[in-house]
Amino acid sequence: MPMAGAQQKSAPQQSSGYEASREVSVQGSVISYSETSAAAPFGPHVTMQTSSGVLNVHLGNVRLLESNHFTLAAGEAIRVVGENVILGSGAQFLARIVQKDGRTLVLRSAQGFPLRPAGKSARQQGAL
């Protein structure tokens, strides 16, 4: 299922800052998932096998995944929409959207900033 604003490409290209117009959609299966990382960018990462090879993907804020009961396990088919961004001396694929089993979770703003789960007071006022 194509995603609005995303383009299907075989290999993510690198850029120096997140820009939604350069996003790509990548499909594959989960090799491993970790809620933490010893190196920047810190936070949840999924390693996935794609048709182009292995891709390490940063998933933003672990609390957002947890509050939405969104889990990942080895062997699951997923699709991520994001961009390969230069961070320090290397590049990292930053996911803005992740899809699994018909569920879609937006992880970042269109500017690439990780989203956070809404607090109690915000939920009571009708925020997502």
Q: Please indicate the percent range of residues in DSSP E strands (runs of 2 or more).
A: 35-45%
Order of helices and strands: EEEEEHEEEH
Strand order of the largest sheet: 3-4-5-7-6
Quickly count the helices. 2
User: What would CATH call the homologous superfamily?
Assistant: Nucleic acid-binding proteins
Largest sheet: 5 strands, mixed, barrel
- Look up the CATH topology: OB fold (Dihydrolipoamide Acetyltransferase, E2P)
Question: How far apart, in Å, are the first and last alpha carbons?
Answer: 24 Å
How would you describe this protein?
By secondary structure, this protein is mainly beta. 9% of the residues lie in helices and 41% in strands. It is built from two helices and eight strands, in the order E-E-E-E-E-H-E-E-E-H. A five-stranded mixed barrel has the order 3-4-5-7-6.
